[in-house]
Design brief:
The complex is a heterodimer.
Chain A: H1 2-8, H2 20-34, H3 39-48, H4 53-72, H5 81-99, H6 101-105, H7 114-125, H8 141-156, H9 158-165, H10 173-180, H11 194-221, H12 230-241, H13 258-271, H14 275-282, H15 288-291, H16 294-316, H17 322-337, H18 352-364, H19 377-395, E1 404-405, E2 408-409, H20 412-443, H21 450-461, H22 482-496, H23 500-505, H24 508-511
Antiparallel strand pairs in A: 1-2
Helix pairs in contact in A: 2-4, 2-5, 2-9, 3-8, 5-7, 5-10, 7-8, 7-22, 8-12, 9-10, 9-11, 11-12, 11-13, 11-14, 13-17, 16-17, 16-18, 17-18, 19-20, 20-21, 20-22, 21-22
Chain B: H1 4-11, H2 19-34, H3 38-47, H4 52-71, H5 80-105, H6 112-123, H7 138-167, H8 172-175, H9 187-218, H10 227-237, H11 255-268, H12 272-280, H13 289-311, H14 319-333, H15 348-360, H16 373-391, E1 400-401, E2 404-405, H17 408-438, H18 445-456, H19 477-491, H20 495-500, H21 503-506
Antiparallel strand pairs in B: 1-2
The chains are: A mainly alpha, B mainly alpha.
């Protein structure tokens, strides 16, 4: 009795300070928007004469669920700052669940395990590129395209898409956009309204994808690459511009010719640059917006350093020579650092130094505001400057100097949140790798080395994709137990959302009125 | 200011700091350090071991110290800025001196890198060893090795409670723990007053431990525990060092002796300023937030260890299982590094638990190394505040420790320290992996991670061949040099070493 009284008086479960209904209302709206996306693989399935009903059913379920949630929570159309975190966290949990429906319905034995199907979907939407498939080519063409398409949808951001499409998010969308867009970025300069910003980002994103698909298709058409069909061109443009890393082939990018590989490198290197700045370069014709950017300069420098280190190792190990050696080094460095995950060579056979270089590059990541994951170049830049200032201030106590980025002082609060992010990131990575090792030993089945566990955790948290050892670029995450797969799925989710929107949900103050 | 230009140019000819004064002080310290060689000489005469290595090294050290002092001037006048250089150099020079005595007196340590590794491991109270046959050292060399850790511990107490707080290293001023009186004294005299108070406590605790262990030996509780062994282990417990003259660390000793060691390790890993205050007046030490968390972590980690040992059927439930788990956790967390069992052969979960407590470390103001409990506590509080502020933009909440508001600048320093520490730890693990692969030595990722964590945190043993009963001897010379650097940087709390690498430090 006392329990029910307490419940009624809400002493045990006080009304949360978060408007949960409004949150779900928006989540429902986003789901409803996503439903029509299933028409793309449906069309492909019709074209190839493959079963199309899994996609149609999944689309109907997604839209239906979205509309139903919207109906139940009607009248709560406005979300505030606080609800934004919950929206983002839920959207990125639920959308892959719906996106996994075709995998389960399609009668594909490799994805019959729901955990694996969900892993594949999360890996898709978060643009990670890790796969539990052992024979990718065994999948139907429509299913393969759906895999690539999920990466493309998730790459720029589902909520960014929703902001561009849904009229109701004209106000309050900034918070959402900032939570979903990777890294600390300045939003104001691109356009006056947040909706316009979101539209411009998507416009640029679609433009880049079309360009990449065209370039690849032309390479195939003129005979530079016999393996490059129109289907392959579109598939790889989807996962390339999204910095995803899924491929439709078992050999990833190794199946293609040198010309294709160089074209791909160029496009993923571009997709790893801040899109807000790319827009100013390509659309507003302000090349200095990119070339003068300190983050861009460090990004390019790090890509070069990584590529040179790998080149030295490739040459020293006699793994390749001439143009091929340069290509292999550059491709792997760019692919791993931008967190794409394509591969033209099995780097798990390379030397320890090369593997460690790749592992480090996984932690560098792409630029803020790009479609890439991991810590991001700008955060490394800021951390470096914060530490330098700290050392200077240890000796010269009287010095008070702001940390500057592109000549402008950075707010102390922003600096603190950068440090918070990095600490949480490293902490999660450590916990993730330890959990994988312990789980693997507890199950006794798969012998997994510490290095493989570290690689898998880093690759999933950083949304890179391939790890080391059996989970390497031509390998698969299939040997992991269901619990480990679940842990890795969680890491991909956390990595894509940059941890903080999820971490705040775990604090007591978030839920208090 | 009007008189300044002439004075500044006279006293600071090359750099923005008084290098000459710093070297002068280093020379003086080295000269005093030479006196410590009297100890092995006396022991050597007593046991009839050769004493010439110690006499020779003592004379050499004194000569170098004297020369350094004569060639430079101004040691008494140095300020905080020179302090970084003095602190960094002192450890390098003291370890160098000890290394020379090893090269003179021990066949296993003829190689300079090996000798310097062993010496640095001693002076930084790490406890990692490149020896493969420890009993072959003989009585005098064996005790000298342990004694070097005890000397290192003396240095660390002063470093931790007088020097680093004054230099505001890594937010140390907040862990600074109210040693009375030194805040307003000049650096040199504050070091002296702290040293006087705390060395007495340190010596007293060491004496007490020798006494208790010797009584165990006499009364037959532990037949192996001779006064020699008692002294050697007390010399390495109080500085949380971990060297042992035994081949298999402290495994052969009786349960009672091991429990005593646990108790003293816990004491040595706690704040010495707290011990000092506890002696002076009746206070409740458990009101100290750091101490509570320190003990709580030990308890939780021990329970995890115990459950895992029982699950893996390595021990059956009983005193021995409890002792093994508690001993290893306390030994690793206080960064001592004794092994009461070869934990390198235990399970993966135990290895990771041990690495985790290695990265936590003892309390601030202790002789223990690593990141320290107080810093973890503050980082956790900071993260919590950051997350709260992400949602409630308007909230301005200070971070508190023991009820007192902690200065924002100190918090920034703690964060910076945490990041640099983790960065160095990762860099160390990567370099060790790459270097071992190059040298054709089979080192797994876990072993490399363990070796990096154990040397940077001044713990001692790692996993695999470098486990508690093993040796770091198989590592390549370059890998050993890297670990020497890690021990050195870790002991000095990194920042004094790191500032030496900034341009601003040397500029006027």
């Amino acid at each position: 009795v006392s329990l029910s009284v307490a419940l009624r008086r809400r002493t045990i479960l006080p009304a949360p300070g978060v408007d949960v209904r409004a949150t779900f209302n928006l989540v429902g709206a986003v789901l409803a928007v996503l439903g029509p996306a299933f028409l793309v693989p449906t069309a492909v399935a019709l074209g190839y004469g493959e079963p199309f009903w899994p996609f149609l059913a999944a689309g109907a379920i997604t839209s239906g669920a979205g509309l139903a949630i919207g109906r139940v929570t009607e009248g709560r159309e406005r979300v505030g700052l606080r609800e934004g975190f919950l929206v983002i966290a839920l959207v990125w949990l639920l959308i892959p669940a719906f996106g996994a429906i075709p995998y389960v319905l399609a009668d594909e034995p490799q994805l019959a395990n729901p955990m694996n199907a969900y892993f594949e979907a999360v890996s898709g939407f978060t643009a990670t590129g890790a796969t539990t498939l052992t024979d990718i080519e065994a999948l139907d063409g429509s299913l393969l395209l759906w895999r690539q398409f999920t990466q493309w949808l998730g790459g720029m951001g589902i909520v960014v898409l929703a902001i561009a499409v849904l009229p109701r998010l004209r106000i309050g969308g900034r918070q959402l956009l900032q939570s979903e867009l990777a890294g600390p970025t300045e939003m104001e300069r691109l356009s006056a309204t947040i909706r316009e910003t979101a539209r411009r980002l998507w416009f640029l994103y679609v433009g880049l994808t079309v360009a990449m698909a065209l370039v690849l298709a032309v390479i195939g058409w003129v005979g530079l690459d016999p393996a490059m069909s129109v289907f392959q061109a579109i598939s790889h443009a989807f996962s390339g511009v999204a910095i995803g890393g899924f491929s439709t082939l078992n050999d990833s990018m190794a199946a293609f010719s040198a010309a294709t590989q160089w074209a791909t490198v160029c496009f993923i290197a571009i997709a790893g640059v801040n899109f807000l700045r790319l827009y100013r370069l390509f659309v507003q014709r302000q090349p200095r917006a990119v070339t003068r950017d300190e983050e861009f300069r460090l990004y390019v420098a790090l890509l070069f350093i990584g590529a040179i280190l790998l080149l030295v190792e490739v040459l020293a190990g006699d793994l390749a020579s001439g143009e091929e050696a340069v290509r292999e080094a550059v491709f792997q460095a760019v692919s791993i650092m931008t967190t794409t995950g394509f591969a033209t060579a099995d780097y798990t056979d390379w030397s320890a130094l090369a593997e460690m270089t790749l592992l480090l590059l996984m932690f560098v990541g792409a630029s803020a505001g790009s479609t890439g994951g991991s810590i991001k170049v700008v955060r490394h830049l800021m951390i470096g400057r914060i530490l330098r200032r700290e050392l200077d201030q240890t000796v010269h106590r009287e010095i008070v100097q702001p940390v500057r980025l592109n000549g402008l002082p950075v707010d102390e609060r922003a600096l603190r949140s950068v440090i918070t992010f990095v600490i949480l990131y490293v902490g999660l990575f450590a916990i993730g790798s330890v959990a994988l090792v312990i789980d693997a030993r507890a199950h006794g089945g798969t012998a997994i080395t510490s290095f493989e566990a570290i690689g898998a955790a880093a690759a999933c948290l950083g949304n890179v994709g391939p790890g080391f050892g059996f989970a390497g670029p031509f390998g698969s995450y299939a040997p992991f137990s269901d619990l480990s797969t679940g842990i890795l799925t969680g890491l991909m989710w956390l990595g894509r959302l940059e941890i903080i929107p999820v971490a705040v949900l775990l604090t007591r103050n978030y839920w208090r009125p | 200011v009007t008189v300044a230009p002439a004075l500044v140019t006279a006293r600071r000819p090359w750099f923005g700091l008084d290098v000459s004064g710093a070297l002068n002080l280093c020379g003086r310290l080295l000269k005093y350090f030479a006196l410590t060689y009297l100890f092995p000489v006396v022991v050597g005469l007593g046991y009839g071991d050769p004493v010439w290595p110690f006499v020779a090294t003592g004379v050499l050290t004194a000569a170098v110290g004297y020369a350094l002092e004569r060639l430079t001037s101004g040691g008494e006048r140095i300020g905080g800025r020179e302090g970084f250089l003095v602190v960094s150099l002192t450890w390098v020079l003291a370890a160098l001196s000890v290394a020379v005595s090893y090269m003179f007196g021990e066949v296993q340590l003829r190689d300079p890198i090996d000798a310097y590794f062993e010496a640095m491991s001693g002076m930084t109270t790490t406890g990692a060893s490149v020896l493969t046959d420890i009993p072959a050292l003989g009585h005098t060399m064996g005790l000298w090795r342990c004694f070097s850790q005890w000397l290192g511990g003396m240095g660390i107490i002063v470093l931790a409670l007088a020097i680093l707080p004054r230099l505001r290293v890594g937010g140390r001023q907040l862990v600074e723990s109210e040693m009375p009186g030194f805040e307003y004294e000049p650096l040199a005299s504050s070091i002296r007053s702290t040293a006087r108070r705390l060395w007495l406590l340190y010596v007293g605790l060491t004496g007490l431990m020798i006494l208790i262990l010797s009584i165990f030996g006499w009364s037959g509780v532990d037949s192996l525990m001779t006064p020699y062994q008692a002294a050697a282990h007390a010399f390495t417990t109080l500085p949380t060092g971990g060297f042992s003259p035994q081949a298999r660390s402290v495994e052969p000793f009786a349960a009672a002796s091991q429990w005593v060691m646990v108790a003293f390790m816990v004491i040595a890993g706690a704040n010495f300023a707290l011990h000092y205050r506890l002696l002076r007046r009746r206070i409740n030490p458990f009101r100290d937030e750091e101490l509570r968390v320190y003990l709580a972590i030990m308890l939780v980690a021990s329970v995890i260890m115990l459950l895992e040992l029982l699950r893996a059927d390595l021990y059956s439930f009983g005193e021995q299982a409890v002792r093994q788990s508690v001993f290893q956790i306390v030994s690793m967390m206080t960064t001592t590094g004794y092994g009461s069992a070869d934990f390198a052969e235990w399970t993966v979960l135990t290895s990771f638990t041990l690495i985790a407590v290695m990265l936590i470390g003892g309390c601030g103001g202790s002789t223990g190394g690593s990141i320290k409990v107080a810093r973890h506590l503050l980082i956790a509080k900071l993260l919590r505040r950051e997350l709260d502020q992400t949602v409630h933009r308007e909230a301005v909440v200070p971070v508190r420790l023991n009820g007192r508001v902690v200065d924002e600048r100190a918090l920034r320093a703690v964060l910076a320290f945490g990041l640099i520490y983790i960065g160095l730890f990762i860099a160390g693990a990567l370099v060790l992996t790459i270097e071992s692969a190059r040298a054709g030595l089979d080192v797994t990722a876990l072993e490399a991670i363990g070796a990096s964590a154990t040397t940077l945190g001044n713990v001692g043993p790692s996993f695999g061949f470098a486990g508690p009963m093993g040796s770091f001897e198989p590592f390549s010379p370059f890998a050993k040099a890297v670990m020497i650097l890690l021990m050195w940087a870790g002991r000095l709390e990194i920042i004094p070493v790191a500032v030496l690498l900034t341009r601003r430090y040397w500029r006027a």
